[in-house]
Amino acid sequence: MGEHRLGAEEVRGLYDGHGPALVAYASTFVTDRAAAEDVVHQVFLRLLSKEVVIPDMPVAYVYRAVRNAALNARRSGWRDAPLDPENCVFEHRGGNREAALALQKALAELPEEQREAVIMRMWSGLTLEEVAAVSGVPLNTAASRYRYALEKLRGKLQPYRRK
Amino acid sequence: MDSHDEEFEQYLGEFDPRRPRALPAAVGSRRVWPQRLAAAAAITIAMGTSLWMFHGKSSNERNSSAANSNAAADSTTTGRRMSLAALTQMALHDPAQLDAELAEASRRMLPDFRRSDSTLRVLAKE
Q1: Burial A53-76 (b: 16+ CB within 10 A, else e)
Q2: Contacts 24+ apart (CB under 8 A), B31-34
Q3: How much is the pTM?
Q4: Where in the sequence is the domain holding A29, given as residue range(s)?
Q5: Can you tell me the distance from the alpha carbon of A18 to that of A64, in angstroms, rounded to the nearest whole number?
Q6: Coil/strand/helix, residue A90
Q7: Which one, A63, A69, B13, B34, has the greatest CB density within 10 A?
Q8: pLDDT tens digit string along A22-37?
Q9: What total of structural domains would you count in chain A?
């Protein structure tokens, strides 16, 4: 198992592929969207500066690093912002802003491992096998987490689907 | 995964996380130039300090050598310099030896007036 430093192009590729999902993930810890972006930037700027040696799975590293940075930000008293349409990290293609806000709120209310599984699968585009590898759990565990997360989200978003 | 899950996945697919602002373009160079600047400043300060110290030391040496030429001459025979205590002991126990030592020391420390171009001879002629 090797460790290495990512080149600038690799870091930017990682940011393009996973940046939006990571901001959504960070925003479940710090509700201010700008703060969530700052957290993600902080992680990627460290990667760009080549201060960080990362393991084989860069995605696993960035998820862990964003989680830790977001928790640090929370602990250091980053103020929570009200969850409003301007502050929402999701956009609904049909323009349903209420549903987008409800999704963000519902994600934040999920247990952390379920939230992580659904964000990685849905918005980082990872397979369940990759989610399992990134989370360091067996495939069955990752699949269960994902299924439970969908079930809870479905319940909470049901009212918005009818509109 | 049942059909309900797949249907709900499709629904979730209607939501996109907003793209965050772009990463700064030149992070690498921005992080490198302060280090280079700091290194250059450190080298400049080190060189400046050593030059200043060297200059100060050499000018002090010039001044002191001009003022203390006799002492400088004496310093070449530091091994023969005797302490006050030793001279006192010698005066008490061996006055002849003390005289010899003082005569030797005066030859080393005082200007030689026996040379034809010595200051004393020149002044005497005038």
Answers
A1: ebeeebbbbbbbbbbebbeebeee
A2: B31/A49
A3: 0.62
A4: 3-160
A5: 13
A6: strand
A7: A63
A8: 999 999 888 788 889 9
A9: 1
Three-state secondary structure call for residue A57:
coil
Question: Would you call A45 and B24 a contact, using CB atoms and an 8 Å cutoff?
Answer: yes
Pick from A103, A3, A109, A144: nearest CA to A60: A3
Q: Determine the residue type at B111.
A: P
The predicted model gives A47-65 an average pLDDT of 86
**Tokens coding A143:** 């699949």
Tokens standing for A48? Answer: 């760009």
Cα(A163)–Cα(A141) distance, integer angstroms: 34
C-beta atoms of B28 and A49 within 8 A: yes
Q: What is the CATH number of the domain that holds A129?
A: 1.10.10.10
Distance from CA of B55 to the nearest CA of A (A): 42
Of the partner residues A8, A23, A118, the one whose CB lies closest to the CB of residue B20? A23
